[in-house]
């Protein structure tokens, strides 16, 4: 952790004026991998925020800077709530939450996933189209941005998800020709094998979602995923948990199962994002109840999942050790 202090001073010196490049610059999808523009395979590892309508207290610069400096995270995920009091009913409020984290990520020099956080069969396509048109028009020039267009399709078929993606992708590509778009898969983003048999065609830089919870999902899901990778499918783990699905307040984390999954992810060079960086009182949460944004970087406020994930991220190279490169914001306005 000795590298942290110099890093903090570096970016405090540069951010407010300019913003910073994310560590690997512009990303692309090449075969089953995410690479930089020179074709070097890279992995993103980081944290997902919790539903924006309930945990907006972490949707800010303080949190994003702590994720980079104390969590060694090179990506943050915005889980923008849609139903249940989110964007569908309060679009201005949630757009502001999204804007705050995108701009914090540009300042801090890490990647940011903009996730249309909805579970189920109805992604509210018209609202999603308007939202992603706006985000791609406003921020598509920044290499920090990754789009996640339907968090967890469920009780639906790949035909439906694919048709949705084939409307969302061109709406985004109209303004943003480059940044990665991650497409959810059926059964709460666990059916990459189905997507691999019928992938989206005609667009570059498309990846497919895998979600897993280490206490629940085991080798059979890894086997399905290997089959998809072997067919060339690029997979992005935009959500994984160290606990069980719906872990319950008295649940626990599964360190060994988490390690088995991380070894798998690293073997196949998948990028992965932990659900969730919040203080909700449940085992998958990284923070203790009543933690404030100013305390996200303080180990005294990390609960067992957070400690486990943080230790893992400290042991991996996230490309954050080198000096920040100023990003010329003027090229994007
Ligand atoms: C995006 O939405 C915000 C919030 O409604 C609005 O202020 C902004 O003008 C929109 N931008 C574009 C390009 O549509
Ligand atoms: C979706 O399907 C699961 C079982 O696969 C079921 O438990 C759940 O109730 C269904 N949800 C809806 C909204 O139909
Ligand atoms: C959690 O454990 C406490 C203490 O054993 C118990 O009182 C409570 O009912 C449990 N909650 C759930 C949801 O199981
Ligand atoms: C977890 O892994 C550790 C270290 O590999 C091992 O010693 C331990 O027996 C494992 N525990 C379980 C419950 O599998």
UniProtKB/TrEMBL annotation:
Alphabetical list of SUPFAM superfamilies matching this protein: (Trans)glycosidases (SSF51445)
Presence of the UniProt keyword Signal in the record: yes
Recorded superkingdom: Eukaryota
Residues of the Glycoside hydrolase family domain: 36-279
InterPro entries linked to this entry: GH, Glyco_hydro_5
Keyword Transferase: no
A GO MF label: hydrolase activity, hydrolyzing O-glycosyl compounds
Keyword field: Glycosidase, Hydrolase, Signal
Span of the signal peptide: 1-17
Family: Belongs to the glycosyl hydrolase 5 (cellulase A) family.
Protein name as catalogued: Glycoside hydrolase family 5 domain-containing protein
């Amino acid at each position: 952790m000795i590298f942290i202090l110099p890093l903090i001073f570096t970016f405090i010196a540069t951010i407010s004026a300019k913003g910073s490049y994310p560590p690997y610059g512009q990303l692309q999808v090449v075969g089953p991998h995410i690479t930089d523009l020179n074709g070097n395979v890279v992995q993103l590892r980081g944290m997902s925020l919790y539903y924006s309508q309930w945990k907006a207290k972490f949707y800010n610069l303080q949190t994003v800077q702590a994720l980079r400096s104390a969590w060694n995270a090179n990506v943050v995920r915005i889980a923008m709530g849609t139903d249940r009091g989110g964007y569908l009913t309060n679009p201005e409020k949630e757009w502001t939450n999204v804007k705050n984290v995108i701009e914090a990520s540009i300042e801090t020099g890490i990647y940011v996933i903009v996730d249309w956080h909805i579970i189920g069969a109805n992604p509210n396509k018209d609202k999603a189209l308007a939202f992603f048109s706006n985000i791609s028009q406003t921020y598509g020039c920044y290499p920090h941005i990754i789009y996640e267009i339907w968090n967890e399709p469920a009780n639906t078929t790949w035909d439906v998800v694919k048709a949705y993606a084939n409307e969302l992708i061109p709406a985004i590509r109209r303004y943003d020709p480059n940044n990665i778009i991650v497409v959810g898969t059926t059964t709460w983003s666990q059916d990459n094998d189905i997507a691999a048999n019928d992938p989206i065609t005609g667009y570059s830089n498309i990846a497919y979602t895998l979600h897993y919870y280490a206490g629940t999902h085991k080798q059979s899901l890894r086997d399905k995923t290997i089959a998809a990778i072997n067919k060339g499918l690029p997979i992005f783990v935009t959500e994984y948990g160290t606990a069980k699905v719906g872990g319950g307040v008295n649940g626990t984390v599964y360190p060994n199962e988490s390690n088995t999954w991380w070894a798998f992810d690293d073997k196949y060079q998948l990028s992965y994002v932990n659900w969730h960086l919040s203080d909700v009182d449940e085992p998958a949460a990284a923070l203790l109840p009543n933690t404030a944004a100013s305390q996200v970087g303080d180990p005294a406020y990390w609960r067992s999942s957070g400690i486990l994930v943080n230790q893992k991220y400290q042991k991996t190279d996230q490309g954050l050790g080198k000096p920040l490169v100023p990003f010329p914001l003027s090229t994007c306005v």
